[in-house]
Amino acid sequence: MDEWNLPDVSRGVPWHASTIAKLVSQVEQNQLGHALLLEAGRHSGGSLSALALARLLLCHAPEGGLNCGRCAACELSRRGAHGDFRWIAPQDNSRVIKVDQVRQAIDFLAKTAAYGRRKVLVFESADSMNQNAFNALLKSLEEPPAGSFLLLLASRAGAIPATVRSRCQLVKLSHPDREASLDWLQRTMGDSQDCESLLEVLGEVPLLIEELLKDGRAESVLRRRQALHGVLSGTSSVSDATELWRDQETGEFLLALADTLQARLRTLGSEGALDGRMRAGFSLLDELLRLQRALETGANPSRELIVESLLAKSHMRLGVVG
């Protein structure tokens, strides 16, 4: 985690509660698999729910499906100092988990637990690993040390090799709907018209919206996303959108365009528009995912060229009002 200053008790998000409760029941019956692949959409709270499950596994006296918040294990995990717990994520502005990180994590897992009977290893953005990293992980999945649990958190389970997926219990964590998203934002940010506007443009991503409102980026992000929606619906010009996105990071642009494109495809689908726009949209989405993977593996394409060309393609293929 970016900052190890957690609350005494870690709770997942409400829309994952029923799924996590089933996993907790498996823990209580000693039936939980040693490796879980948790598939959760970006900004849907997967990290919070994975953390809640990890801390429960480490807790000496869990209660009510949560870690107790009082034992020595909870105090250590709260501060990020628990010797039997590792949280692995891309480092140093990298978009990928590197093979050396995986090897160090495996070495950690092979050692005897020092604070209790369990060791927990979480890979955030597990779908960002390259093939070498996945290969390094396989041995631990095939021959897991006793008392060890691996949680692989991914937004795209399909991007993880079948050899890895087949050795994990796949758990799909639901995405919040509009009502759940608004309820979360009202509880964390209070009543705000901005929340409604951001949900309308960004979609049901309450944790992202909460972050944007807290750090003051909401207005600028809203303008850029509205421009993308306009390009895809044919109501905004490519040149205006290009100007707004020209100086943004390529990775951020690709993610935003992919999110906006998926929202546009959902709208077209709900309208029964099963025409060339749908096929073109899915083809464009595949192209965006390929570019994202290329960036993750170190490619460095021209930012300006990527923005201008993709916006032009988006407008030409989907920019039809209706």
Structure explained in plain terms:
- This protein has 322 residues and is an alpha/beta fold.
- It has helices at 17-28, 46-58, 72-78, 99-110, 131-142, 162-165, 178-189, 193-202, 206-215, 218-233, 238-245, 250-270, 276-296, 303-318, and strands at residues 35-39, 85-88, 119-123, 148-154, 169-172.
- Helix 4 packs parallel to helix 5, helix 7 runs parallel beside helix 9 (206-215) and helix 12 (250-270) runs parallel beside helix 14 (303-318).
- The protein starts with 16 loop residues before the first helix and ends with a helix.
- The mean pLDDT is 88.
Write the layout of secondary structure elements.
Blueprint: H1 17-28, E1 35-39, H2 46-58, H3 72-78, E2 85-88, H4 99-110, E3 119-123, H5 131-142, E4 148-154, H6 162-165, E5 169-172, H7 178-189, H8 193-202, H9 206-215, H10 218-233, H11 238-245, H12 250-270, H13 276-296, H14 303-318
Largest sheet: 5 strands, parallel
Q: Indicate the percent of residues in helices.
A: 40-55%
Give the termini separation.
43 Å
Low-confidence stretches: none
Question: Which structural category do the helix and sheet elements fall into?
Answer: alpha/beta
Q: Numbering strands along the chain, what is their spatial order in the largest sheet? A: 2-3-4-1-5
What would the principal axes of the Cα set say about the shape? Answer: globular
**What's the alpha carbon Rg, rounded to whole Å?**
21 Å
The number of helical elements comes to: 14
Could you give the order of the helices and strands? HEHHEHEHEHEHHHHHHHH
User: Average pLDDT across residues?
Assistant: 88
Would you count the extended β strands for me? Answer: 5
Proportion of residues in extended strands: 5-15%
